[in-house]
Write a structure and sequence with these properties.
This protein is mainly α and 423 residues long. It has 2 domains: 204 residues, no CATH class; 195 residues, no CATH class. The chain has 15 helices and no strands. α4 packs across α9.
Length: 423
């Protein structure tokens, strides 16, 4: 069956090759950047940046992501209808509007938080964060169109160069001035250069094929009907993946946040990357088979996808068990690598489970039953939050890792049970 798919989906494999090249290159550059960061900067800088950028991520998930999801889903449809530029321009209008709304909300939160905690008003930090958020949102707008048009080569090259620039400039910035503002300013400068080159100077143009355009309300309705339902899942995902950092920051310190973030990054990335590559190959096939009402073939594709992923991830966990200490010593500076072996292994297992759970969720999506994954995700996020609050004061960052494992495991079992009951 695999040989048949390799022949039939040659174009998908080629696109997947560029996706894989982009992901592996970004991963390597990011790991090198993290290694240098842990060598030249104290953990509290990484911890502070994690909390600030995490807050911006939540805002983007709520205000920007629904538009982005709508853009990816419906852009090909409007290209086929001959209204590509009209759709792109109006999506851009919505993007800009909600970027500024979310920036205004962030400014209010920033000043309220600063005032309530008796911190000095750091206007420079605020300006850097606003610029970073704006640039990152515009970049996502541009990347989304590339994804919708399946321009994987251009997108991969952009991501590789962008990651290199961001890491290069934050390293240089930290060597000049070793503080939080410098670290964030370096990342922002890298974003500026990457966006200027790939998002504007060489970015592919787009035109309409028809003169009469649809009504603007058509796009707004699509955002409301298609995009808004993603918000609860985005919030739940944010709680499950980033919420523990804020609890660590509250009960422990920014230094502990930084150490946990560094270990978390290197432990989770291989499973997320390999899961993404495998999914990029099998997901389109599964959806096509189910869309063609070929349930038997779809079931076989799902099983092969699941078995392939479990096999690869089992080997990955074995590598973590045998060589975890060595990997940590190679990828983290000594001040970050003390007594974190158990966290590294637990987070690795957690993200293996998380990625397998995403395969099961995609099975629901192929049936058109996306609503069935919402409740298990919410329950898992709530449990994750409660367990973090209970364990972190007692066990420190080891407690946060255990909470992540418990939350993802609960989500996996509930989603799997739901699939078993339904199908």
């Amino acid at each position: 069956m695999i040989r048949k798919y390799l022949t039939q989906y040659k174009h998908l494999i080629k696109e997947g090759g560029w996706v894989f090249l982009g992901q592996i290159s970004v991963a390597i550059i990011s790991l090198v950047g993290l290694r240098i960061l842990t060598e030249i900067a104290p953990a509290n800088i990484l911890g502070g940046a994690t909390l600030l950028l995490g807050a911006l991520t939540l805002l983007r998930n709520i205000f920007i992501a629904p538009i982005g999801n709508t853009q990816i889903r419906f852009h090909p449809e409007y290209v086929n209808k001959g209204y590509a530029k009209w759709f792109d321009d109006n999506i851009k209008r919505l993007y800009i509007k909600f970027i500024f709304i979310s920036i205004l909300i962030f400014i209010i939160i920033f000043f309220v938080w600063t005032y309530s905690n008796d911190y000095p008003y750091n206007i420079l930090l605020l300006l850097i964060l606003i610029l970073y958020y704006f640039l990152d949102a515009i970049k996502s707008l541009k990347i989304n169109r590339l994804s919708a048009e399946r321009r994987q080569k251009y997108s991969a090259i952009w991501q590789i160069v962008d990651t290199f620039l961001v890491n290069l400039f934050f390293i240089v910035a930290l060597l000049i001035v070793n503080n939080l503002e410098s670290y964030l300013a370096g990342q922002t400068l890298g974003l500026v250069i990457g966006l200027a080159i790939f998002g504007f100077i060489t970015y592919p143009e787009i035109e309409n094929n028809k003169n009469k355009n649809p009504d603007y309300s058509e796009i707004k309705n699509k955002v409301i009907k298609y995009g808004l339902p993603f918000i609860p899942l985005a919030i739940v995902s944010w709680i499950s993946n980033l919420g523990d950092r804020y609890i660590i920051g509250n009960y422990l310190s920014l230094t502990e946040v930084g150490i946990y973030t560094a270990v978390y990054s290197i432990a989770s990335r291989p499973f997320l990357m390999m899961g993404g590559v495998i999914s990029g190959f099998f997901r389109p096939i599964l959806f096509q088979k189910e869309g063609n009402k070929d349930s038997l073939s779809a079931k076989k594709v799902f099983k092969v996808w699941l078995i392939t992923t479990i096999t690869v991830f089992s080997l990955g966990i074995l590598v973590y068990l045998l060589f975890g200490d060595f990997i940590i010593k190679i990828l983290l500076a000594k001040t970050y690598a003390q007594d974190v072996s158990s966290i590294f292994l637990i987070i690795g297992i957690s993200y293996a489970i998380f990625s397998i759970n995403q395969i099961i969720e995609n099975r629901f999506y192929s049936f058109g039953l996306s609503n069935k994954v919402i409740l298990p995700s919410i329950v898992a996020a709530i449990v994750n939050l409660i367990v973090n609050i209970l364990l972190i004061p007692i066990y420190g960052i080891d407690g946060a890792a255990l909470a992540t494992l418990l939350g993802f495991s609960l989500q996996f079992f509930t989603v799997s049970f739901t699939l078993y009951v339904i199908k």
